[in-house]
Specification:
The protein has 170 residues and is an alpha+beta fold. The chain contains 5 helices and 7 strands. A hairpin with a 2-residue loop joins strand 6 and strand 7. The relative contact order is 0.16.
Length: 170
């Protein structure tokens, strides 16, 4: 037999596969959340000329600038779901700056900050025994991404003992 002995952690990392990726909403920025609170102002008398719609029309250039700013290399952030962990990737690279393994949390809460509801966004908060382990800020369609993460976690937690016990893992 030739070859070097690799640690199980190295072997597991090689098998890690991307499941999904999400970009944060512009609601990640404080000014966008402020705008979202204003956009939500509705008027029962005027359907189209509500204060929220007029504010949205007036702030189109600012909104477009915020949307484009989230793709700048020094601002860019993505939320990555793999079959082993959930993490945050900064910049244009694939390296995860912060992450949490699927077996290191037991709950995922969706917290909707003021102004995020208009964007259909929310913060995903990963908790282990009540303590926050990771926060994904302003995830677009947070409920759907939470469900995808939770289903991936369940699959991982059910299959991992079987993979560890298989002869190929030895």
């Amino acid at each position: 037999m030739s070859g070097s002995a690799e640690s199980p952690a190295t072997d597991r990392r090689r098998r890690e596969r991307y499941v999904a990726m999400a970009w944060p909403s512009v609601a990640r920025f404080a000014v966008a959340r402020w705008m979202g609170r204003g956009y939500a102002i509705d008027s029962p008398r005027w359907s189209f000329l509500s204060p929220g719609n007029l504010l949205a029309l007036a702030t189109v250039p600012l909104g477009a600038g915020l949307y484009l700013a989230k793709f700048l290399p020094f601002v860019c952030r993505r939320y990555v779901l793999t079959d082993v962990r959930v993490g945050i990737a900064h910049g244009l690279g694939r390296r995860l700056v912060e992450s949490v393994a699927h077996d290191a949390y037991d709950a995922i809460d969706v917290e909707i900050l003021p102004g995020q509801a208009w964007y259909d966004a929310g913060d995903l908060v990963f908790r282990s025994e009540g303590k926050e382990t990771l926060r994904l800020a302003a995830v677009a369609s947070a409920g759907m991404f939470r469900r995808t993460i939770w289903e991936t976690r369940q699959s991982h937690c059910q299959l991992q003992p079987l993979l560890d016990a298989s002869p190929a893992a030895a």
